[in-house]
Amino acid sequence: MDLNLDAPHSMGTTIIGVTYNGGVVLGADSRTSTGMYVANRASDKITQLTDNVYVCRSGSAADSQVVSDYVRYFLHQHTIQLGQPATVKVSANLIRMLAYNNKNMLQTGLIVGGWDKYEGGKIYGIPLGGTVVEQPFASGGSGSSYLYGFFDQAWKENMTKEEAEQLVVKAVSLAIARDGASGGVVRTVIINSEGVTRNFYPGDKLQLWHEELEPQNSLLDILNAAGPEPMAM
Amino acid sequence: MSQSSYDVPAKGGFSFDLCKRNDMLIQKGLKSPSFLKTGTTIVGLIFKDGVILGADTRATEGPIVADKNCEKIHYMAPNIYCCGAGTAADTEAVTDMVSSQLRLHRYQTGRDSRVITALTLLKKHLFSYQGHVSAALVLGGVDITGPHLHTIYPHGSTDTLPFATMGSGSLAAMSVFEAKYKEGLTRDEGIKLVAEAICSGIFNDLGSGSNVDICVITKGNKEYLRNYMEPNPRTYVSSNGYSFTKKTEVLRTKITPLMERVEITEVTGEAMEE
């Protein structure tokens, strides 16, 4: 079993950002892997940049931590100089400057989300390479592959805060079910004019999808229960 | 036009002069010497009153045990200690360097060091070397904001956790923690759990072995329990003691201790005056 514990720490990841009527909801799983070993099963991939802007990190753990630390520092200075809270667009742009100008050395995809008084709730996706795209909803990381079709069907304009959060939790949970590199718990951050709310959904409390088993205390219970049917063509 | 050569004064930094020659030798078939790695099991956990760090004591050079009783728990500050796995030289160098930086910072600010300061200094250094400084660290300490435990990977990423393991024996140790850790452990429960996790690494991982070192850090106090447990004693020791073969006559015996004990006596008297 080749675990390769020396592999760089990467966040397999599923990260999501969704706008709703009045703000944004950011969501992420919590698995950080080194090769085939889960180095941290409860990591927090949604990092604060300012009071009103947060970023979801994916890709190389080291690269994304360093980029968000730099941008937090720049935004702090910018806020002091400006005399007002920084806008989401400026935060996204600063991330983009670092990501684009160092594209050869960095390997990190980020989703910036927040609320400001000029534009309201906004989501900006900044994938590998350093493009910045303003989107009503964005997903990233290895688990996002399983969510493109889901979001096309499920995202609606002018959702309420509760609907948006439920959508995010459902999406991350679906991705965790199918992507080996995503797992653990679901963390969400809701940002609107009133402030920021952090929520936490433990992995065993999520809805079960197709062929997923209930959490068991003993292997004997699983062995004695009827097994899933073998795959048929 | 005369070609004159002159000595360029040595600039700082790495000298690449021998790289071509080394590559040529490797191509010719020379096996380059492997560096001293600490195979290692290192762990840390947060208990009720602070942080407990643990480590094994085996340092390996390829398949050989180079040091049977090395110290892997490094001092960073009076209230912060750091366990190191990976290349022994790298972990020593990086922890010593950050330890000095922290001391200078303490003089400048007039305050006790914070764990997050050590974390930022370490992660900045390791990230700038892009993973080539092979040091995987478990950093723990208690400062004015409370107890903290962090893991730092060679590429510069960090995690903050209530319990953590690193090194080749990390899987063995993590299985013990995942089974038995709970919040609010007492000091004795915590030490017992850490010792169990390190023993799991010592007995199940080839890169870890020998003794268990433990360091308990609480608010305002630290205890470095060197060789807390020695589960691998040398069982068969010759009772004759040391002797020469084939009836060699010993003419003279001189024993020079390698570590000198120096006694410092303070001379009380008047201060020097001009």
SSE map:
The complex is a heterodimer of chains A (233) and B (274).
Chain A: E1 10-11, E2 15-20, E3 23-28, E4 32-34, E5 37-40, E6 46-48, E7 53-60, H1 61-82, H2 88-101, E8 108-116, E9 120-126, E10 133-135, E11 137-140, H3 148-154, H4 161-178, E12 186-192, E13 195-201, H5 219-224
Antiparallel strand pairs in A: 1-7, 2-3, 2-11, 3-12, 4-5, 6-7, 7-8, 8-9, 9-10, 12-13
Helix pairs in contact in A: 1-2
Chain B: H1 19-28, E1 37-38, E2 42-47, E3 50-55, E4 59-61, E5 64-67, E6 73-77, E7 80-87, H2 88-109, H3 115-128, E8 135-143, E9 146-152, E10 158-160, E11 163-166, H4 170-180, H5 187-204, E12 212-218, E13 221-229
Antiparallel strand pairs in B: 1-7, 2-3, 2-11, 3-12, 4-5, 6-7, 7-8, 8-9, 9-10, 12-13
Helix pairs in contact in B: 2-3, 4-5
What does this structure look like?
The complex is a heterodimer of chains A (233) and B (274). Chain A is built from five helices and 13 strands. Chain A has 233 residues and is of the alpha+beta class. In chain A, the strands form three sheets. In chain A, strands 1, 6, 7, 8, 9 and 10 form a six-stranded antiparallel β-sheet that branches. A five-stranded antiparallel β-sheet of chain A has the order 11-2-3-12-13, with helices on one face. With 274 residues, chain B is of the alpha+beta class. In chain B, 27% of the residues lie in helices and 27% in strands. Chain B has five helices and 13 strands. Chain B has helices at residues 19-28, 88-109, 115-128, 170-180, 187-204, and strands spanning 37-38, 42-47, 50-55, 59-61, 64-67, 73-77, 80-87, 135-143, 146-152, 158-160, 163-166, 212-218, 221-229. In chain B, strands 1, 6, 7, 8, 9 and 10 form a six-stranded antiparallel β-sheet that branches. In chain B, strands 11-2-3-12-13 form a five-stranded antiparallel β-sheet, covered by helices on one side. In chain B, strand 12 (212-218) and strand 13 (221-229) form a beta hairpin. In chain B, helix 2 crosses helix 3 and helix 4 (170-180) packs antiparallel against helix 5 (187-204). Chain B is globular and about 60 Å long. Chain B starts with 18 loop residues before the first helix and ends in a 45-residue tail after the last strand.
